[in-house]
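no rush on this but wanted to send it before i forget. what follows is a protein written twice so to speak, once as letters and once as structure tokens for the fold. mainly i need to know what kind of three dimensional shape the backbone takes. thanks a lot i owe you, the record is right below.
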Amino acid sequence: RDQRGLVGAKHAIGLPPIATMPRVQFFLAIAHIFRPCLGWYLPGVAPHDFYRGEKVDLKVNKLTSTRTQVPYEYYSLPFCKPPGGVQTAAENLGEFLSGDRIDNSPYQLFMRDDSTCSILCQVILGKKDVEAFKTAVDEQYHHNWIIDNLPAASIVKEADGMLETSYSKGFPVGYKTVRAAGALQSGQAGG
């Protein structure tokens, strides 16, 4: 026993045990440990409340394929470009390390505004451009859009007819039509 009548008055680390601390100091220490966080900010994750009709940013990222593993810049295919030209968005370190190249886009999205089939631009594609699109479809390249800093998702119809929301990366540049066996394809003679 020490002079206060406590057994083992010193801990192995040389501090008095909690039982010997005055109660006010003890509660202040606990309050200090569990004090509420006053706030924090992580770039790119600040919440934003959208109002009806407010513009929602849509940016484009590289084109990717699970078949080839070779990414391409989004505007390497002749997609419609923004009126003021393509501008690369400021990248953070994570985007840079993962090889992302995020650019602006000409698409106009507005919160809670349903619109369909708006003409974005009209271009005449040459043979080389058509072949580039065919190759992208054959190699299963996908768009990677970023809407309000979130990746775009697509709805995929499964073979059994069920609809399922797919959260896989991007959505296809295009689809190929599968023809039934024995069906005539363009350019083939019947007989």
Observations:
- The helical segments are 23-33, 93-97, 127-138.
- Strands lie at 55-56, 58-60, 64-65, 109-110, 141-143, 145-147, 150-151, 154-157, 163-166, 171-172.
